[in-house]
Amino acid sequence: LAMGEQDRVIDLGCGQGVLAESVAQAGGEYLGVDASTRLIEIAQQRHGQDGQFLVGDVTKLSRLDGVEADSFDAAVFLLSIQDIDPLERALTSAAWVLKPGGRLVILMIHPAFRIPRQSGWGFDEQRKLQYRRIDQYLTPNKIPLKEYPGKQQGVSFSFHRPLEVYFEALSQQGFVVDRLRELSTAAWVTNQTPRAQGRAAREIPLFLALRARKVATE
């Protein structure tokens, strides 16, 4: 995120507000927004001393009281962008709230290697290699993830999109990507991890992080 002191940061789809403490420790001002009333209640209980939280639709930030255009230095989608649809409205909203030159940071599961229900691990017995199998990539997909038990029924969704969709949408909203990192799970490898599994963990990134800046549009 490369924060400066007194930066204003808005966390879009903040969930339980886990980013708030880090922003506060860096000297920034934090606002978390999420559509779930329950998650915002938990965020306020756990991190209320580190920032503010609002219940709201991150694709319609202009409708939230106290949120103004061109007022934040950074906006973050922390493992939330793939749960939000439409993507274009989410990025339009992020662009609206950011100051000129403001940073947009996105951390997501890697859309090229980790597609819910359309990817998985395999093992080549002959070569003794663990590999990543991809069954679908270029086709955008709305994927049901979890059924809620009990009286409250519902399904949560993940929205798979290929990288070109993200980059085109960012460009359309006046963002220029200036940094990208593909993150592996190598940190989870131990001396007890089988060799093939450890190699795959180091070589195949399951997360992707990017930073983009809001530039002037004509």
Number of helices: 5
Q: How are the strands ordered across the major sheet?
A: 3-2-1-4-5-11-10
Main sheet: strands, sense, barrel: 7 strands, mixed
Provide the β-strand percentage band: 25-35%
Average pLDDT metric: 93
- Helix amount, in percent? 10-25%
**How large, in whole angstroms, is the Cα Rg?**
19 Å
* Residue windows where pLDDT falls under 50 for at least 5 positions: none
DSSP, total strands: 11
- How does the helix and strand content classify structurally? alpha/beta
The rough form would be described as globular
Order of helices and strands: EHEHEEHEEEEEHEHE
Alpha-carbon distance between the termini? 27 Å
Task: Produce the secondary structure layout.
Layout: E1 8-12, H1 20-25, E2 29-34, H2 37-47, E3 52-55, E4 72-78, H3 87-97, E5 98-109, E6 119-124, E7 129-134, E8 141-147, E9 155-160, H4 163-172, E10 175-183, H5 195-203, E11 207-214
Parallel strand pairs: 1-2, 1-4, 2-3, 4-5
Antiparallel strand pairs: 5-11, 6-7, 8-9, 10-11
